[in-house]
């Protein structure tokens, strides 16, 4: 599985949260990388098939959630020493000038995961660009993917429904992402971590009780109690949703980049910049749900002026967000001791 997802010599960023999934992923990738690099010495004829030769990094995002992420990042730092991999940590506060604690104070505990998910996705891409990696691997397991399929069905989000079961996503504008644990049950990962005595952080996010995903998880567990194959069945159902762009006009997106930060976007403003715009202007609902009317109402005027400052590194609307084109290897990369 790992061999099919990577090319020999790839630079790979492992998205590390300190949780069980990313800890097991980092452990296995490090193990296989070293094991099959050594095989090269003894079995030259196997080189094509078995050599990994990967350049591995840990990439962590600090969302700024007191009592949760600060503790889990300590686990990541311990694992960095244990696995001897370079670590880069990017924080929402540094990138966006808003931590999740600040955002929850502003918007309350509804929709906070929308902000967190959009910002994390972009933060990971920013970190990957800084590290100059070829690919990001994440620890999403089969349970996570089945939950996402359910959520996309419940929201009627056909475009995401098609994409969410891809084991590797790739577009010209973003760094490829892969989910090597797509078919691995959460319980298998927990058992592996337990028997290997891995150091991982197991506390739930303090803002998760209100997350929509939680309802999908409970529903999935109920289904699994009746039919044990439910999780893989749902993933296979998701894979079978092959809807063409012609039959789904909502699925037609024109690739492009955000005028403000240079991130991949089919609109003038990417979702992260739109959410930031709302936060900075005291209109946090600006980027939530069906944004078309609000976008039009509040951004028409602003978008006229975007062209004037889109070439600058730091934009007036979002003074902390740096253009993607200006990112480079950060000097704060923690090297293994
Ligand atoms: Fe972020 Fe929500 Fe996950 Fe907490 S539960 S880390 S707020 S996405």
Automatic annotation (TrEMBL):
NCBIfam families: TIGR00269 family protein. Residues 308-325 have a biased composition (Polar residues). Residues 11-204 form the tRNA(Ile)-lysidine/2-thiocytidine synthase N-terminal domain. ATP binds at residues 15-17, 21, 61, 139, 144. Gene3D superfamilies: HUPs. Residues 299-337 are annotated as: Disordered. Pfam families: ATP_bind_3, zn-ribbon_14. The gene is CTU1. GO terms for cellular component: cytosolic tRNA wobble base thiouridylase complex; mitochondrion. This is Cytosolic thiouridylase subunit Ctu1. GO terms for molecular function: ATP binding; transferase activity; tRNA binding. Keywords: ATP-binding, Cytoplasm, Nucleotide-binding, RNA-binding, Transferase, tRNA processing, tRNA-binding. GO terms for biological process: tRNA wobble position uridine thiolation. It comes from Clydaea vesicula. Plays a central role in 2-thiolation of mcm(5)S(2)U at tRNA wobble positions of tRNA(Lys), tRNA(Glu) and tRNA(Gln). Directly binds tRNAs and probably acts by catalyzing adenylation of tRNAs, an intermediate required for 2-thiolation. It is unclear whether it acts as a sulfurtransferase that transfers sulfur from thiocarboxylated URM1 onto the uridine of tRNAs at wobble position. The keyword Transcription regulation does not apply. Residues 257-286 form the Cytoplasmic tRNA 2-thiolation protein 1 C-terminal domain.
């Amino acid at each position: 599985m790992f061999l099919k997802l990577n090319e020999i010599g790839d630079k790979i960023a492992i998205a590390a949260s300190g949780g069980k999934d990313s800890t097991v992923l980092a452990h296995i990738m490090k193990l296989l990388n070293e094991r099959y690099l050594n095989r090269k010495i003894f079995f030259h004829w196997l080189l094509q098939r078995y050599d990994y030769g990967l350049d591995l990094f840990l990439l962590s995002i600090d969302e700024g959630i007191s009592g949760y992420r600060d503790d889990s990042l300590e686990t990541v730092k311990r694992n960095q020493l244990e696995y001897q991999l370079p670590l880069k940590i990017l924080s929402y506060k540094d990138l966006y000038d808003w931590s999740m604690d600040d955002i929850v104070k502003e918007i309350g505990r509804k929709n906070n995961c929308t902000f967190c998910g959009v910002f994390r996705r972009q933060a990971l891409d920013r970190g990957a660009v800084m590290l100059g990696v070829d690919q990001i691997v994440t620890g999403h397991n089969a349970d996570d993917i089945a939950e996402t399929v359910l959520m996309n069905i419940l929201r009627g989000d056909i475009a995401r429904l098609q994409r969410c079961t891809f084991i590797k996503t790739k577009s010209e504008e973003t760094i490829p992402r892969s989910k090597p644990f797509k078919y691995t049950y959460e319980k298998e990962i927990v058992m592996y971590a337990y028997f290997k005595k891995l150091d991982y952080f197991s506390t739930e996010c303090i803002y998760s009780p209100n997350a929509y995903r939680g309802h999908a998880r409970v529903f999935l567990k109920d289904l699994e109690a009746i039919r044990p194959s439910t999780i893989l069945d749902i993933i296979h159902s998701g894979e079978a949703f092959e809807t063409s762009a012609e039959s789904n006009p909502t699925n037609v997106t024109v690739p492009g980049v955000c005028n403000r930060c240079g991130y991949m976007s089919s609109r003038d403003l990417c979702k992260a910049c739109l959410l930031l715009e709302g936060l900075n202007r005291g209109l946090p609902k600006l980027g939530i749900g069906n944004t078309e009317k609000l976008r039009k109402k509040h951004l028409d005027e602003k978008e006229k002026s975007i062209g004037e400052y889109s070439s600058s590194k730091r934009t007036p609307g979002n003074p902390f967000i740096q253009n993607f084109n200006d990112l480079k290897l950060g000097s704060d990369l923690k090297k293994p001791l």
